[in-house]
Amino acid sequence: MERVQSDATFAQALLDEAATLFLNREPETARLILRDLVNATIGFEQLATLTTKPSKSLHRILSPTGNPSMDNLASIFQAVRQRLQVSLVAHSEAA
Question: Most exposed residue of 5, 29, 61, 62, measured as fewest CB within 10 angstroms of its CB?
Answer without folding.
Answer: 5
